[in-house]
Amino acid sequence: xxxxxTVNTWVERVQAxxxxxxxxxxxxxxxxxxxxxxxxxxxxxxxxxxxxGFVKNLLSKVNSSDVLNMVIHDVLFSEGDRHTGxxxxxxxxxxxxxxxxxxxxxxxxxxxxxxVKGLDSVFVPNTARSAILHENRANKPLGLLDYRCLVPxxxxxxxxxxxxxxxxxxxxxxxxxxxxxxxxxxxxDQAELLRERARxxxxxGFEETLDAIxxxxxxxxxxxxxxxxxxxxxxxxxxxxxxxxxxxxxx
Length: 251
Hints:
Largest sheet: 3 strands, antiparallel
Mean pLDDT: 86
Number of strands: 5
Oligomer: single chain
Low-confidence stretches: 107-116
Radius of gyration: 19 Å
């Protein structure tokens, strides 16, 4: 139901050697994907840094359903690293995701061994990735991709597209093992997270689900930045404060 917003990916067995490491043999599963059309949003912002009008005009043509589908996708699948480098846009202003390997709460293949990461997406308010809208005026056109600018009153509630509701209901009504078998999800806890996230979105609505996700991260942020925090404390939480949607008005 959400396949149109992301490129196709698949797993193949790779048997090769690493010449730059002295011919170390490889015999492992590899993740492959088809090329994404267009260029990344990051490349667009950099290449057209001096032409805000062009950027705003292109982003203003983005189909609102693409944005809504994408923010639902990232929350439903607990995307941990949705930055502007893995969102592609083509000449018709259609959006596509690439690099979904940080979904379902884990970073696969990370040097630290699959460490858990929180929800972090440029589409999702109060995340570190979305905070770039507030850090640099040149990024203000990205406010056109804020879902709150596209729904009545800035709240989605449970008003999901019918096809996505059906998808969520299937996830919510399945056991973790059924989800693992049908969708080839590697770990039980990942399948369980997908089921619980689908249930929350259906029962609580989008904003209440987001608030529940953000609450522990917000508490950690306050601990790491508050008056009792030690000097030079590293901020490890994915939650960030913000001042509300820009909707491109200040671009």
